[in-house]
Amino acid sequence: MTNPATNQPAQSPTTAPAAAPATGPSAAPIAGAPKPTVTFDEFAKLDLRVARILSCEPHPKADRLWKLQVDDGSGTPRHLCAGVRDHYTADQMVNRLIIIVANLAPKVIRGEESRGMLLAASDIPKDAAAADPNAVRKVILLRPDADIAPGSIVS
């Protein structure tokens, strides 16, 4: 039997060529341990906002952290510590729009107060990357795909 569109022999599901293993950017990420299920009401407590990075400098006590000042639309710059220094230069950070968790309780990180958290995606969990010296962890900052005012609500 032939495929009328191509005039080539039709392949049955049992004779179709095997797919090549996934590699590169389309490769499946290494799954981390699943986290507990949250209710919609618990999720709704998060205040996700757009913020613009105003300044970025090295954290004085941590080689992998940036100290950021961000405009979150409140009129007062917000200080964040972000563990993306291995993945982004200061020049790549400044003026970038990001998504932050605006209502996260403040936390002192190596002597610097952080009042929120930026959102990022990674293909390998931190603990898996730390356990494998050959692992190359990709980290991507989450951001709006178009310009929007700092303080805009993410829902």
CATH superfamily of the domain at 41-147: Nucleic acid-binding proteins
Residue share in β-strands: 25-35%
Question: Which structural category fits the helices and strands?
Answer: mainly beta
Which whole number gives the mean pLDDT? 85
The CATH level-2 architecture of the domain at 41-147 is identified as: Beta Barrel
How far apart the termini lie comes to 52 Å
Q: Main sheet: which strands, in order across? A: 5-4-3-6-9
DSSP strand count:
11
Instruction: State the share of residues found in helices, binned by percent.
Output: under 10%
Give a short account of the largest sheet.
Answer: 5 strands, antiparallel
Radius of gyration: 22 Å
- What is the string of SSEs from the N terminus onward? EEHEEEHEEEEEHE
Shape annotation: globular
Count of helices?
A: 3
Could you name the CATH topology of the domain at 41-147? OB fold (Dihydrolipoamide Acetyltransferase, E2P)
Can you describe this structure?
The chain is mostly beta strands and 155 residues long. It has a domain at 41-147: Beta Barrel (OB fold (Dihydrolipoamide Acetyltransferase, E2P)), CATH 2.40.50.140. Helices cover 10% and strands 29% of the residues. It contains 3 helices and 11 strands. It has helices spanning 40-44, 90-93, 126-131, and strands spanning 2-3, 8-9, 48-58, 66-71, 78-82, 97-101, 107-109, 112-114, 117-118, 120-122, 139-141. The chain has a 5-stranded antiparallel β-sheet. β7 (107-109) and β8 (112-114) form a beta hairpin. The radius of gyration is 22 Å and the shape is globular. Mean pLDDT is 85; it is low at 1-23.
